What does this fold into?
Amino acid sequence: MSTEPLIRVDDLKKHYTTDEGFLDRLFGDKRLVQAVDGVDFEVREGETLGLVGESGCGKSSLGRTMLGLESPTAGSVHYDGVDLTELSESEMRPYRTDLQFIFQNPFASLNPRLTVEDIIGEAFDIHDIASGEERHEKVVELLETVGLSESHATRYPHEFSGGQRQRIGIARALAVDPQFIVCDEPVSALDVSVQAQILNLLEDLQDEFGLSYLFIAHDLSVVEHIADRIAVMYLGEVVEIGPTEEIFSPPYHPYTYSLLSAIPEPDPLWDGDRVILEGTVPSPTNPPSGCKFHTRCPIVQEDCSTWDEHPDLEPVDDGEHQIACPYHERVGAI
Amino acid sequence: MALLEVENLETRFYTEEGVVQAVNDVSYAIDSGEAFGVVGESGAGKSVTSLSLMRLIENPGRIESGEIRFKGRDLLSLSDEEMRELRGNEIAMVFQDPLTALNPVYTIGEQIAEAVRLHRDATDAEARERAIEVLDAVGIPDPEERYDQYPHEFSGGMQQRVIIAIALSCDPDLLICDEPTTALDVTIEAQILELLQDLSEEFDMAIQFITHDLGVVAEICDRMMVMYAGEVVEQGTVEEIYYEPQHPYTVGLMSSIPRVGSERDELDTIPGTMPDLVKLPTGCSFHPRCPYAEEACTRLDPQLVDVDTGRPVDGPDRTTHSAACLAHSGELDGELTYSVDIVEETETEDTDTVEDTQ
It folds into this structure.
């Protein structure tokens, strides 16, 4: 794994407005959903960066904005020396072979009217990669790579189980020989035994093709297994980032600590202390002042709500591990 | 006599493709105040088992045979009228997806009060009072104001609390929870699990907890059963099943969970997928995916037996650790060889390996 960044995200913001309806415009009820609110990080070659957070924290918006599926409100995404956010649709097209996406729901992301051969082959047609006999051969090769067989090529998505569909989604992403894949909760909809099969497949493919992943999940135990580094998001901001083993050991950001302690441990006699967060994630249309986590934080201090903005990520130790909380050392005392 | 006794339950669906054997010869018992976990992959028959209890199986499904005894009464012989009295009153159910379980055009207070009026013969004012009381019990702030709000004004976790409030409104003796936290974030899941545990203690209510998440079961259940392809493959206390699993499927399920602090490079998997319930494999349904399968497994259908004595377990039995694998009835030539790693609480690396060979 080299340390050269493959993709660099700088101060990326994605805000959605709620004034799209006629009535909203008439009454001037305009609110901003600050889905992604100033995020910086990089993904290195051959690395898996895990991105975790609760629903509504902006992790999917971030993944989609990075690949140009949503246009950013501000900030830049550099890939191979080019700022992707500056490109037009047609200029972006050649880069789409390098940057791919695996979706969460394998039941919704495959066209039910196309055979598997056409679902995967469509990518070859669009990017003029292969046609005719060569296209068929490549489809079969891909199917075998992801653990399916030639006989599956003529079938339709409804004939497959959830795990098999997710394999088809992976084969489609691999068809254009990508460098970087955003995996948006690829195993959340699957049973635990099938989930393990897909996680192992993603790791094997990474070794074989030298892929880099942004792996989005809400489950820290899944991310721990697959990621080299992890970024933890809360309300559109990264609150902690660092190598996997350092995220899972002290010092912690209080939010990361709460997430970790909420995981149900598959051991009946386990008797650890749990921090149960009160309430739910505040609305991103009207985020709390100061540190956005202060309304639920187990170690909240008096001045947390009065900062002008969220505390910055500050390096701990060697600088690879960064935490956005000046009081994080108090987590140990919970 | 236990609170609930299910004996040799068989539920089938008669579809155009053939007969779906969704629940096959399932027996278990739940005592009052006890939390019982039902675990397995999608399609294992967990939900159909629970719907059978409530007699909510619809055409083309049928409860083929067996007995369901609740407080000694056989539910399958009750009239529809008697069953309606019981449902929501003595046995209540919490569903997986809170948004689809709530009616979007009624206020949440009205949906709780409806159940109270139906079962308690209460006036509107009494029903309202009771609804506010249970909303408060499940931890919804400002219950009087929230009473008049609609489901879309609640977050996912709050909606699930409302569902639990509806279920609790008539003080049930048994609460059936069908994956109540699967749709929720882990932080909210922790809140809901804590709530269920508190309520179960407070009201001495038994819980049948259906889930595919083994972490959740470990946390709240006393006893559990593991289902595969409509059958019970293992049953016992949570400790027995987690520390000394006796069925290869249970072992596979346990080892495929990604765990924080684990040093494994590669997750163990169970190869293949659940068989089609229309055409179950011959012999043991698990043999096509089982690493220990032998020729005998393709012929003989294993019975649930006591793992210590090898004697068959028949009917609901709350005390025996039982498993349905030929290894325990002496019909297998080889042995089940796997080890159970117990991770120490201190999060230091574990070395305590129990070699398990029968």
Q: What stands out?
A: Chain A touches chain B through 42 residues (CB under 8 Å). The two ends of chain A are 37 Å apart (CA to CA). Chain A has a mean pLDDT of 88.
